Amino acid sequence: MGVKITETILRDAHQSLIATRMPTSEMLPIIDKMDEIGFNAVECWGGATFDSCLRFLHEDPWERLRELKKGFKKTKLQMLFRGQNILGYRPYADDVVEYFVQKSVANGIDIIRIFDCLNDLRNLEACVNAAKKEKGAESQVALSYTLGDSYTLEYWTSKAKAIEEMGADSICIKDMAGLLKPYAATELVKALKETTKLPIELHTHYTSGCASMACLKAVEAGVDIIDTAMSPFALGTSQPATEVMVETFRGTPYDTGLDLKKLEEIADYFRPYRDECLANGLLNPKNMGVDIKTLVYQVPGGMLSNLTSQLAQQHAEDKFYDVLREIPQVRKDLGNPPLVTPSSQIVGTQAVFNVLMGERYKMITKETKDILAGKYGATTDPVNPEVQKKAIGDMEPITYRPADDLKPELDSLRAEIAPYMQQEEDVLSYALFPQVAMDYFKYRDAQQTGIDATKGDTENKAYPV
Question: For the packed helices 320-333 and 301-313, what is the interaxial angle rounded to 10 degrees?
C-alpha cells in the first residue's frame, strides 16, 4: 500500500509563507478539483487561520469552514488544535475546549491534530476525550519534535505508548522547525512503528533543507502519511512540494496513486496568487531559502518572521542574530521546551527583551513567568532555579494539570457578548480572542447595517482597510 498525502496549502503552507493571509475567496474556486485528487486529508483550518480570519481578513473562520465543507464532499478536512490552548495562547477551561471540539466537528472538521507546546499529554486529554464523543471525528496527537539530550528515542516511544493508551486514532511527528534529519527520521519512524499500532504521519518544514529527504527516509521506514504542499506554496518555511513527492514515489512500493496532471491543474491555479503575493510583498523571498541556522538555533520559520517583526517595531533589526544566539539560553532556562506555538513566541519574546535590555531577565514577560510557575504544564528538563526565583519569588510552582485550576467559562462569556451574538460559534471566537473578536463583531454589524465599517469603534483597530 502506498504512502498517503495530506495537503497543507489551505492552512500551514500559507501560514508559513504569507502569514496566514490567504482569503477564503482564493480557496473556493479550486476545491472541487482538489476534492478529486484522493488526498488522505486537506489541512484547512486551525493553527493561526482563526486569528488571521478575524484580525486581518474581515472573515468569520466558522463560515470559512462551512464553505470548505460544502466543496470537499469526498476528502476529509483536518485542523490543527493547540491542546488546552485551543487556537489561542493561554490554557482554556475544559468546557471551552469541549465545546470548541464539538462545534469544529459540527461545522466540518473530520481530523483534529492536537499538540501541546511542552509535550505534556495531560494538556491533550480534554480534547481527545471530546473528539471521542463526536461521531466520525478522528483525534491525532502530535509529538512536537525537537532536539536535546532528553529527547531520546525512549522519550518519543514512551510518549507514543501513552498516546495509544489515551485513545488517539493516530500519531503525528510534528517537526515544526525542520529539525528532523533523514537518518534520524528512519530511526524515529522505525522505533514508533515497533512501539504502537497507530498510523504514523510526518509533518515537517523545509526551513533547514532536510524536509524532502526526511520524508523519503520516513516513508521507506514505514511512515503511513506525509504532509506536503502544492508547489506554488511549498519549500522555504513551508512543506515539501506535493507534486515532487508524488513523482518521487511513483512506480515504487510507496506509490501514492495520485494523478500528476490533476495536481498540475491545481498548481496552475495557485501560481498567479503566489506571484501576486510576491509582487505586493506578502511573500518575502527570504522565506523561500534554506537557513541552516535552523539546525543550530532550532527556530521555526514562523518564529523567525515574528522576531523580525518585533525587532522592526523597536527599530532594532541589527539585533536579529544577537536574538538568535540568545534563544538557546532562554530555552534552556525554561526547561528546554520544543519551540512551537505558544512556547516559541514566549521564548522568542523573552530573548528579544534580554537583548534589547542588555541584561538577562531585567524584564520578564507574564508568559515566561507562567511557564516557570508550571501554568503551561511540565517541562521536559528542570527550569533554571535562579531565573525561576527571580520570576515568581517564593511562589510554589504547580505540578498538577494546569487546567484543573480553571473554572467553566462559557456562561460568563455568553453574557459578555450577548448583544453581538449571531451564532453559537461566536462565543468561542470571543473566548479565544476577546478584543479581536469584538472588533470583528462590530465590523460585521456595521457591514450588515450599511455603516462605514472603517469609522467609529472599529477605526483601524484590527482591519487595515
Answer: 120
DSSP 406: P
Q: Which three cell numbers stand for residue 244?
A: 515532487
Q: Alpha-carbon Rg of the chain, whole angstroms?
A: 21
Q: Is the pLDDT reported for residue 459 higher than 80?
A: no
| Alpha carbons 354 and 337: distance in angstroms, whole number | 18
Phi, then psi, of 457 in degrees rounded to 5: -65, -25
Burial of 207 (0-12, 13-18, 19+ CB in 10 A): buried
Dihedral, 244, 141, 173, 226 alpha carbons, nearest 10: -10
Structure confidence by residue, pLDDT tens digits, 377-424 = 999 999 999 999 999 999 999 999 999 999 999 999 999 999 999 999
CA distance linking residue 413 with residue 425, whole number of Å: 12
Is-contact 46 11, C-beta < 8 A? yes
Q: 410-417 vs 434-449: helix axis angle to the nearest 10? A: 40
Question: Under DSSP, is residue 134 helix (H, G, I), strand (E, B) or coil?
Answer: coil
8-state DSSP, 359: S
H or E segment to which residue 301 belongs? helix 301-313
> Can you give the pLDDT at residue 1?
77
Burial of 285 (0-12, 13-18, 19+ CB in 10 A): exposed
Alpha-carbon gap, residue 154 to 337, rounded angstroms: 17
Q: Give the chain's largest Cα–Cα span.
A: 64
305 burial level (CB within 10 Å; 0-12, 13-18, 19+):
middle
CA 140 to chain centre: 13
- The residue count of the chain comes to 465
How much is the pTM? 0.93
Q: How far apart are CA 25 and CA 19, in angstroms?
A: 17
Closest CA to 156 of 183, 184, 124, 132: 184
